Amino acid sequence: MSKNGKPRVLLVKHWIDIHDRGLRLIASRCKNAGFEVIYASYSQPEEVVKMAVQEDVDVIGMSFFTSAYEAHLPKVMQGLEENDMKDVIVVLGGVIPDEDHDMLKAKGVKEIYGAGSDVNQFIELVKTEVRK
User: Fold this and answer.
1) Are the C-beta atoms of residues 18 and 52 closer than 8 Å to each other?
2) Helix or strand or coil: residue 9?
3) How far apart are CA 12 and CA 23, in angstroms?
4) Looking at the whole model, is its pTM more than 0.70?
5) Domains along the chain with CATH numbers
6) Beta carbons within 10 angstroms of residue 132's beta carbon
7) Burial zone of 128 (CB within 10 Å; 0-12 exposed, 13-18 middle, 19+ buried)
8) I need a labelling partner for 64 at 20 to 30 A (CA). Which of 10, 25, 43, 81 fits?
C-alpha cells in the first residue's frame, strides 16, 4: 500500500495483445475507487516483475486474449518470489478457458475475470485483500 494508504495496482497486458478496452475500463474504475494505478501495455514477464518491484505494488492485473498466460504466469510468479514479493496479489483477465482456472489458481492466481465480469468484484477484491 502506498504511503497515503491507497492500494497500488499494476495493470498490464501481454506484449503482442492489442486488445485493451477491458484493461482501460478497469484502470479508470480503479482510479475512481481511489487506487493508485500503473498501466503498462505490451509487457514481457521480466518487465512486469521489474515494474512491480519499482512501484511497490499490492496487486498485478494481467490481461490475456491468447494462451500466453501459460508461459508468462510462471515467470512472473517466480520473479515475484525472487524479489520477496510473494504477498502481491495476482489477478488475470481476458479470454481464459474455464478449464484452466483451477490450474492457474494452483500457481498463485487469486482470481480470474473473463469478458463481461463485474468490475466491482475486482474493486472489492482489491479493497478486501490489500487490507489484510
Assistant:
1) no
2) strand
3) 8
4) yes
5) 21-119 (3.40.50.280)
6) 6
7) exposed
8) 81
